[in-house]
Amino acid sequence: MYAYKRTVKSEVDSQNINEKRDLLDTIEDPYELYNDMDINEAPIDELDLKAIVKEEKKKIKILNVKDIKKSGRASISLFRLIPYLFLILGFIALKNNQVLDISTYLPSLLVGIIVGYIVSKDLF
């Protein structure tokens, strides 16, 4: 939660905010066919098709290094990796010592998640 908050805050600080359509809009009109954009009423002979194609190609988002770097910071954060490492090592240790009882292990994880959520809410 902390890593995600830092990522969002850095995006807001850099004023790199892209307004997205709401989920219902995306489901009903995934290709934005029913937008209220002005339609060019010029005859087909007068349209510059090359310019239209170039403009549409600019709208297509391609996965690039900059976007990967931005999203990678939050996913490789120590705040996310250390708990997963602790979880995996704890599971392995319990399994190797034949003390793993799933009916106790999973509710214990739930308690840890709830406590972590409450603590992180208090920090922010």
Annotation keywords:
6 helices, 124 residues, mainly alpha, 0% strand
SSE inventory with pairings:
Layout: H1 2-13, H2 23-28, H3 49-59, H4 65-75, H5 78-96, H6 102-123
Helix pairs in contact: 1-4
User: What is the chain-wise order of helices and strands?
Assistant: HHHHHH
Q: Which ranges are low-confidence, i.e. pLDDT below 50, for 5 or more consecutive residues?
A: none
Task: Average the pLDDT over all residues and give the rounded result.
Answer: 76
Oligomer: single chain
Structural class: mainly alpha
- Biggest sheet record: none
Report Rg: 24 Å
Number of structural units classed as domains? 2
Transmembrane segments: 78-96, 102-120
Keywords: Membrane, Transmembrane, Transmembrane helix
How would you characterize this protein structure?
With 124 residues, the protein is mainly α. The mean pLDDT is 76. It has helices at 2-13, 23-28, 49-59, 65-75, 78-96, 102-123. It is elongated and about 80 Å long. 65% of the residues lie in helices and 0% in strands. It folds into 2 domains: 2-75, no CATH class; 78-123. The chain crosses the membrane at residues 78-96, 102-120. Keywords: Membrane, Transmembrane, Transmembrane helix.
Brief account:
Keywords: Membrane, Transmembrane, Transmembrane helix. With 124 residues, the protein is mainly α.
